[in-house]
Amino acid sequence: MSHPRFHLAFPVHDLAAARGFYGDLLGCPEGRSSPEWVDFDLYGHQIVAHLAPDECGSADTNPVDGHDVPVRHFGLILDWDAWHALADRFRAAGQRFIIEPGIRFKGQVGEQATMFLLDPSGNALEFKAFRDEAMIFAK
What we know:
Blueprint: E1 7-12, H1 15-25, E2 30-33, E3 37-42, E4 45-51, E5 61-64, E6 67-70, E7 73-78, H2 80-92, E8 97-104, E9 112-118, E10 124-129
Parallel strand pairs: 1-4, 7-10
Antiparallel strand pairs: 2-3, 3-4, 5-6, 8-9, 9-10
Protein name: Glyoxalase
Pfam family, one: Glyoxalase
Keywords: Plasmid
């Protein structure tokens, strides 16, 4: 393994809807599963959708660069071209965004392309990209 991979488990209200979103729309290959959970390969990282309808979604937000960013979210840092291709795929599928694809911190340290959306269970996901990956942790 060239670098550590993260594992994230999160609640969903419907495994079929999770399969449609993560498997079909995002293109994540499915791994093991049971009637209560499904493993997905999210760009080499293991994410697991667990059936837990009472734990889904969160409305808490914090202001970031003029947007209300969901406090509880997860996602990926993609390369610039992959981010744009994913944004195009979401738009073509009619995916609703909670923060439309755009550039955050324009002209500042940490300038990044970002977009936020919800999965069918209300889990917030952020996908971002940096033109200069050295800016990922820059202050």
